[in-house]
Each structure stands twice: as structure tokens, then as C-alpha cells.
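JOB MANIFEST
job_type = single_chain_structure
chain_count = 1
residues = 249
[input]
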Amino acid sequence: MKIEEYLSSLPPDIMSGEDVQLPDHSIREIFNLVKPGKKDVFFHLGCGSGNGLAIAAEFARKAVGVDVSRKKIAQAKESLDGIKNIELRCENILDSDLSDATVILFWFSDIKTVEKMTEKFAKLKSGVRIITIFDPLPGILPATVSFPYLIHEVPFRPARLKEQLVKIFDTECIDFTTAWEFAERYTKAIGSPEAGNDRFLTILQSIMIWINARNLGLSCTQEVPPPVKSYMEILQNFFNIEVGHHLKN
């Protein structure tokens, strides 16, 4: 099956970002990058059980968690009981008032949600920082990159996809080694330290990074390198996942 079919077979909550919990080490890496202070109001959109809010409360004046799931908000209330500078909202992020936010963590992959939220973010006050993971906001140049964490700052600076990739990967020539390095960074960021490296996810991400770079003229060679060919064959033969149709002539 094509990779699109494989992705569509995954649970919708995972694909939308609604059912994904960032580990504590990733949250702390994000805060070390953003460096929120006691004047900041931090919003975690899709806060889940609230582990990110507990950490944010150590740094920011206020931490606000928004999640559409009543079950998750109830879990967050229980786990965060006693922390005074935390607010929880059970509502759709598209409807949530973000006007007092200064730092926002936004990790959703549903394209319609991302596009609508990008429009909403663009209307926020100057200086607000939006953190995404792996993917930049569509059509926006990140202000700061420490892959896989990307910081976008209002007012946004428009950019084409090629400009985004150059900014994210800090190179105008992406080879397979670079693709693998960045894919592994992403895998380690979203995975549990106890689980070790998820090789399947790293393989999948590295191949797609290289293919996208090639299609945009950013790969170091138009020829498909041997490692990419080998991993494409592994995905096809052992997982029945086909990605070659993404290669443009």
C-alpha cells in the first residue's frame, strides 16, 4: 500500500495530534530553547494529561492547557491538583481565546486544523511565539530552529517551502546522512527514553525528508542513494509500504 494509505489506517486521534503525549524531556528541551519567564503566559494546545503544564508552571506566570477531551482534562485536573498558576479548558482549540498567550505549544498534524490555527495565530499580538515540532506552520518561516523544535514569532514572515527547508536544515544540500540525523532527532524527541530509538519511524522519516528535498532541488544528488533504495525496499517487502511514487522525475 502507498504510505498515504498506511497513514490513513492509523487512529485519527494520533494523526490529528489529539492523542499524542510529549515526554517530559522534550518539554524541558523546548523550555530551554524558548526560555519563558515569569511574565509569560504559556498555552499547551492539546495538553493531554498535563505533564507539559506542570513543567511550564515552574517557569511561566501562568500555564493554560486546552483539550477537547473531557477525560483528558479530568486526568489533568487530578494530576495537577495544588498547582495554582495552571488553568485548564475543555474546548476545541479553534474556539479557544488565545489573546493573553505569549508562548504557545502546538503539535497537530491535521492539515485543516493547522491551516485554521495558523490564521488564528497570525492575529495575535506581536512577539507571541508558537512552537511546532518537525513541521513549520504552512507558508511561514520559523524565527528559531533547534530541530525538531521550530519557533515562529508574530508577526509571521511568509516563506516558500524551499526557504523553510533551508532554514530548518541549515544547508542548501541535503544528503541521506543529514536526512537520517534529523529523522533520528525527531524520533528521540517524541519517544520514551526507556523505549530506545524507534528504527521504523526513523527510516520512514529519513526517506521522506530526502525525497522531499530531492523534489525541491535541495538534495545533493538527483540520483537515489543506495541507502534510500535499500530502505525503500525494506518498507515495501517487510511492511508493504510504498513511498517511491513520491519521487518526481
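[summary]
The radius of gyration is 19 Å.
Confidence is low (pLDDT under 50) at residues 13-17.
exit_status = 0
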